[in-house]
């Protein structure tokens, strides 16, 4: 069956709901799906914070083709900046795996440093 725009959108919504519900159950019951806000998007899942209270921007991807980490991480970085979050991460659907706890999480090493240290590294690029 060919994936249409409508079926892709519905799959994405279901995936976001599944991830948000899983995180709400296992991390904080205030975590939930976010309403889409266009150019000022702050990620798909809201209310996610580190133990120190720093916000995290989460972008969910239930993709139909190949992994596209570069594009997805750019999107997560934009959403991180829009939200003033510590890190922006991508949660990508693993084909054939329905357990939300077993999905992929993609980020940069700078995101990892931020999560481990509580601050983004100062980098001159």
Describe the protein.
There is one protein chain. This protein is of the alpha+beta class and 125 residues long. The protein is built from 3 helices and 5 strands. It has helices at 5-26, 69-83, 109-117, and strands at 32-33, 45-46, 56-61, 87-92, 104-106. Strand 3, helix 2 (69-83) and strand 4 (87-92) form a beta-alpha-beta unit. The termini are far apart. The mean pLDDT is 94.
Counting structural domains, the number is 1
Q: How many strands appear in the DSSP assignment?
A: 5
Strand order, biggest sheet? 3-4-5
Shape: globular
Please report which band the strand proportion falls in: under 5%, 5-15%, 15-25%, 25-35%, 35-45% or over 45%: 15-25%
> How many DSSP H or I helices?
3
Organism: Kocuria sediminis
Protein name: Restriction endonuclease type IV Mrr domain-containing protein
Q: Which features does this protein show?
A:
3-stranded mixed sheet, Trna Endonuclease, Chain: A, domain 1, 37% helix, 15% strand, globular, alpha+beta
SSE layout:
Layout: H1 5-26, E1 32-33, E2 45-46, E3 56-61, H2 69-83, E4 87-92, E5 104-106, H3 109-117
């Amino acid at each position: 069956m060919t994936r249409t725009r409508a079926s892709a959108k519905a799959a994405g919504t279901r995936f976001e709901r599944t991830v948000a519900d899983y995180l709400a159950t296992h991390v904080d019951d205030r975590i939930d799906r976010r309403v889409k806000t266009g150019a000022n998007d702050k990620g798909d899942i809201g209310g996610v914070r580190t133990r120190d209270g720093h916000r995290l921007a989460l972008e969910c991807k239930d993709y139909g083709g190949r992994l596209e980490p570069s594009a997805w991480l750019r999107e997560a970085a934009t959403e991180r900046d829009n939200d003033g979050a510590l890190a922006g991460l991508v949660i990508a659907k693993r084909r054939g795996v329905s357990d939300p706890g077993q999905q992929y999480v993609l980020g940069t090493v700078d995101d990892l440093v931020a999560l481990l240290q509580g601050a983004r590294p100062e980098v001159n690029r």
